[in-house]
Amino acid sequence: MARFFQITLSAVLVGLISVGCGGDDGGAGFASGAFGSSSGPPDSSGMIFDGVGAADALSDTEIAISWPSATNVEGTPAALMIYHVFRYLPLPGESFDSVPPPSEVTPGWNLISGNGTPPGVTSFIDTGLFGGISSFFWVRAEDPQGRKSLSLVVAGGHTPEIGAADTQVYSGGNPGDPHFEFSTMMDDAGRTCLTCHTVTPGLGSLDLNTWEGVMIGTGTASNPDSFVIPYQADMTWSNFLSGLTSNPAHHLLFLSQAADILAWETNTIGPWVEDGALNVVDLDPPVFEFDNIDNAGQYFAEFTAFDEVTVTWFQASDPESSPYGNGGQTAAGQLGYFLHYGPNSNSIDWDNPLGPFAWDGVGLQSAIISDYTESDIVIVIRAADKTDNWTTNEREIRLSR
Ligand code: HEC
What we know:
By secondary structure, the chain is α+β, with helices and mostly antiparallel strands. The chain folds into three domains: 2-158, Immunoglobulins (Immunoglobulin-like, Sandwich), CATH 2.60.40.10; 178-274, no CATH class; 293-400, Sandwich (Immunoglobulin-like), CATH 2.60.40. The chain is 17% helix and 21% strand. It contains nine helices and 16 strands. It has a four-stranded antiparallel beta sheet with strand order 6-5-8-9, with no helix packed on it. A four-stranded antiparallel beta sheet has the order 13-12-15-16, with no helix packed on it. A three-stranded antiparallel beta sheet has the order 2-3-7, with no helix packed on it. A hairpin with a 2-residue loop joins β10 and β11 (308-313). The longest helix has 19 residues, at 2-20. It is elongated. The two termini are 49 Å apart.
C-alpha cells in the first residue's frame, strides 16, 4: 500500500513537472494562446488537456476565459468533457511570480464555475470583476468517469479602468455645468445669460439654453459657428471672452460679476471642453475594429534590433471622440494609446504602460519598445478616450526570436 502510494505520487509529480516545463518560465506554466483541441501525451490522470488558453477582458467587470477541448486515453469525445474554472485575485502589487501554483485547496484559488461548464463548452465568462485589476485563471477538465486533468497552466487577464463618470456635461444640472452657470449668473438688472440667449438656434443669435444651440452658435446647423472647439480649452476660452467683450452693451451689467465669470475658465467651460464638450456622459469605450477588412494585418510587432521591438497598429474608433462625426472626422489626436507588455501573457506590466501615444491622424501608428532583450514578448495595445474609457477588445501580439 505504501509502495503503491509512492509510485502514484511520483507519477503525479512527473506529470506536474512535464506540464511545468511546457511554459518558457519553467514555473507553473502559462497560457500559450493558440488552441483548438489538446494534443500530446495524457497526464498521469489519463486526461489529455493543454490547460487554459487565454483570458481576455471583455469589459471592466468581465473576462472571457477559453481553452482547447480535452480528451483522455480512451479518446472520449470533446462534447462529453466538462471544465472547472478557478480564479486567483492577487493582492495589490503581487505579481504573477508570487501567485501560488493552482490547486483545489490552495488558499486564494477559488472555483468560479459552480458545478462546471455544460459538457463540451470550452469558454467561460467571469462576470465578478471590477476595473483596473489583474486576475489569474486555471482550468481543470473532467471526463465522464470523474477523472480530472493535472495541467497547471495559468492565464492572466487585466480589466481596464472604467470611464470617468465625473465627465462634465452641458446640462447636467450641477454647479460647474455650463447650462447651470449660464442660468444662474445674474447681472445688475436681474437678468441671467438665458434671459437673452434663449432663442431658436440657427438664426444668427446664440442659444445658450440647449447644447445644440451652443454647438451651432451664431451660425446654422449645416454651417455652425460656435465659440466652442471640443478638446481645445484655450481657444474656446478666448473665443468666449471675445464674444462677451465684442457685445459690450449687452454684457456691461455683468461687470460686477467679472471675477466669477473669469473663474469659468477653470471651473466650468475649461473642464467641460477638455472632456469633449459633450451633452451627455460618454461611457462608450473606443473599439479596435479587428473585423474590419481595412484593418487586416495592421496590428503587429517585430524585433527591429537586438534590444528593440517596433509595434504598429491601426486607429481605434470612438464616435464620441468626434462630436461632429458625420463629416468623416476621425478621433485623431483625441485618443491616447498605451502599450502593455511583458515576456509572457502573465507577466505583462499593466501598471507601467508605454505611452500615451497620440494619433498623428494619418496612416498607421507605431512606437518602439527599447531596451528589451528578452527572447519572447507579449504586447497588448489599449486606447483611452478623453473621458477615460478604455478599449476592452484586446488582442495579444506574441513574438519570439
Ligand atoms: C441683455 C441680453 C444679454 C445678456 C443678459 C447676455 N447676453 Fe450675450 N449676447 C447678447 C447679444 C445680443 C449678443 C450678440 C450675438 C447674439 O445675438 O447672440 C451676445 C453675444 C454673446 C456671445 C458671443 C456669441 C458669438 O458666438 O458671437 C457670447 C459668448 C455671449 N453673448 C455669452 C453670454 C453669457 C455667458 C452671458 C451671461 C453671463 C450673456 N451672454 C448674457 C445679449 C445678451
